[in-house]
Amino acid sequence: MCSRRGQDFLEEHMTDTETKLARASAPANATCGEAFVAAAERALTSGDLDLVSDAELERVFTAAVRLYAAKVDLDNKPINPVTAEKLTPTDVVVSVTAMIRAVGLNLWDLSMWFQRPHS
Fold first, then answer.
1. How many Å separate Cα 54 from the centre of its chain?
2. Spatial separation of the C-alpha atoms in residues 81 and 83, rounded to whole Å
3. Cα dihedral angle (83, 89, 92, 93), rounded to 10 degrees?
4. pTM of the predicted protein model
5. Left if phi > 0, otherwise alpha if psi is -120 to 50, otherwise beta: which for 104?
6. What is the mean pLDDT of each run of 10 residues along the chain (119 residues)?
């Protein structure tokens, strides 16, 4: 279960089944991030990827990307968006390609942002 604030989020945004899975997969004092990570790892380990619904994955992914972008823009410094050792190049390419397509960008757009200076 996540902290009280996180528990409110779970109850508001997840189905009963998703909430039960997240609570069962995470320690009692887990944050919502930890609860989601536990649910995702359980889905990956078991091979039952439907343990995390597509809609829930979309909401979490969208929120994480928005928060990451806001933090980078506000602090004007790069932060690690992922733990590289836990991903394969295929994981990254599949995810990034899907995001680029979802928001209507193309490789030229991406090349302009790739040249953006970092502090």
1. 12
2. 7
3. 170
4. 0.70
5. left
6. 50 52 56 88 95 94 94 85 96 95 91 73
